[in-house]
Automatic annotation (TrEMBL), chains A, B:
<keyword id="KW-0804">Transcription</keyword>
<protein>
    <submittedName>
        <fullName>GntR family transcriptional regulator</fullName>
    </submittedName>
</protein>
<feature type="domain" description="HTH gntR-type">
    <location>
        <begin position="10"/>
        <end position="78"/>
    </location>
</feature>
<dbReference type="Pfam" id="PF07729">
    <property type="entry name" value="FCD"/>
</dbReference>
<dbReference type="GO" id="GO:0003700">
    <property type="term" value="F:DNA-binding transcription factor activity"/>
</dbReference>
<dbReference type="InterPro" id="IPR000524">
    <property type="entry name" value="Tscrpt_reg_HTH_GntR"/>
</dbReference>
<dbReference type="InterPro" id="IPR008920">
    <property type="entry name" value="TF_FadR/GntR_C"/>
</dbReference>
<dbReference type="Pfam" id="PF00392">
    <property type="entry name" value="GntR"/>
</dbReference>
<keyword id="KW-0238">DNA-binding</keyword>
<keyword id="KW-0805">Transcription regulation</keyword>
<dbReference type="GO" id="GO:0003677">
    <property type="term" value="F:DNA binding"/>
</dbReference>
<dbReference type="InterPro" id="IPR036390">
    <property type="entry name" value="WH_DNA-bd_sf"/>
</dbReference>
<dbReference type="InterPro" id="IPR036388">
    <property type="entry name" value="WH-like_DNA-bd_sf"/>
</dbReference>
<dbReference type="InterPro" id="IPR011711">
    <property type="entry name" value="GntR_C"/>
</dbReference>
Amino acid sequence: MEHDTDRKDSRASDEVVRLLSAKIQSGEYSDGSPLPAERSLMEELGISRTVVREAVQSLSKQGLVVARPRHRPIVRKPGYEAAISALESVATHLLDNMTGVRNLFDTRIMIEAALVRQAAKEANREDIAALKSALEANRAAIADSDEFYRTDNAFHGVLYDISRNPVLPSIHKAYSTWLEPQWSQMPRLPERNEANYEAHRRIFDAILLRDPDAAEDALREHLNNAWKQVCRTFDEQP
Amino acid sequence: MEHDTDRKDSRASDEVVRLLSAKIQSGEYSDGSPLPAERSLMEELGISRTVVREAVQSLSKQGLVVARPRHRPIVRKPGYEAAISALESVATHLLDNMTGVRNLFDTRIMIEAALVRQAAKEANREDIAALKSALEANRAAIADSDEFYRTDNAFHGVLYDISRNPVLPSIHKAYSTWLEPQWSQMPRLPERNEANYEAHRRIFDAILLRDPDAAEDALREHLNNAWKQVCRTFDEQP
DNA sequence: GATTCCTTTTGGTATGACCAAATGAAATCT
DNA sequence: AGATTTCATTTGGTCATACCAAAAGGAATC
């Protein structure tokens, strides 16, 4: 008879990973500074370089360190952004087809719809001020498509910030990063900028009027239009 | 003068990763079957075992293969669940304190609120039927707390399924997995089950009545209550 | 003070070896 | 014959060593 699952399995690197990530969180390895040299760790921990390298690679995939090819791994405290970066490699596979992108974009619509509803119901003066400021920056950049892209993104970012949940800004960054390839191939037309700015203004107005339904509608129309533009760019039927 | 970014950086394993993931996606390495032995790949590709192992580890972290410690890596086609599993290690770090859990739980409330709104607006007969069936299973399990937990989770899962966006069920699984530790330590009382079932019923009724606002309210109250229970369990002020 | 040049350090890769667990086939038992 | 045990082989995990090219750091130079 077999003992169904042998939980004795273990990789030596796992323990090293745990040890190192503990030292990172405790601040013993301060954020931004390089990890000790592989040979040092090897000696210090009494293990082979193989295991050290394996552990470092794990940490890298977990986003706890950034490991540029021939450089020392740089420590990066675990944050929600680190979590997102851990997803990057997988996301690449899921976004190589249009339906994958669409699925991700749909979640974005859903989340931002929820965000604007929440903003319409709970935004305080500072939130409104930040939103207004972002909107005006967006307006001022209508003529400059690159700058408009930035301010557009920033405007949406404010919506995520309003939630005051640190997870959400990270998600926004992820959306920006992963959907950027689609956006960057689109033609930048001032008239499009104008339309997008108007959409942002409608969203802002609805939030100002404390009207969640109107805010959600405006947001959905805005993002659906954006999706149509993407489809047109890639010759796909909307 | 520097050439800003030297794009010459590369790890030999990266190319191997690309090659192998291509063979996986093309089906040359069929789903569920083991990857060739390291020594085979080494010879076949004319590289050292070091690089092969490094590549395999990358594939593993990307969720393209599942590599149990002393077994052959098993090919697994990339899905959204693979993406979630990539987050697991980082999530652990973020969930070791109560605020981390709360932040995650808040996103859950937000997403499920959006889901029930959507369900109230767009659910079709089959969705309603699935929801009703899940609700009845939940009701039948009020006396059995373990079974109730399962059916409770399943009921919420249906909400994610209704979106018909394959990303969301994966997110549900992630929530279930990551928040399970909190739940499992809570006392299981039939009276609590009863109350939770009633909450589910209210949500269902609101969806049936096509009333997004009522559905959202019911959902929020339900999850906020759940959170209070968690807080009480862990002696934290709500 | 900035630049160039050189030495050392360090990460990336290749080899070869050994062990314990996993695998698969042969031998054995029922 | 079919299931079980036994044993030889394969294979992943780890270690040790070596070499190279790039990075890092410091010394000599402009």
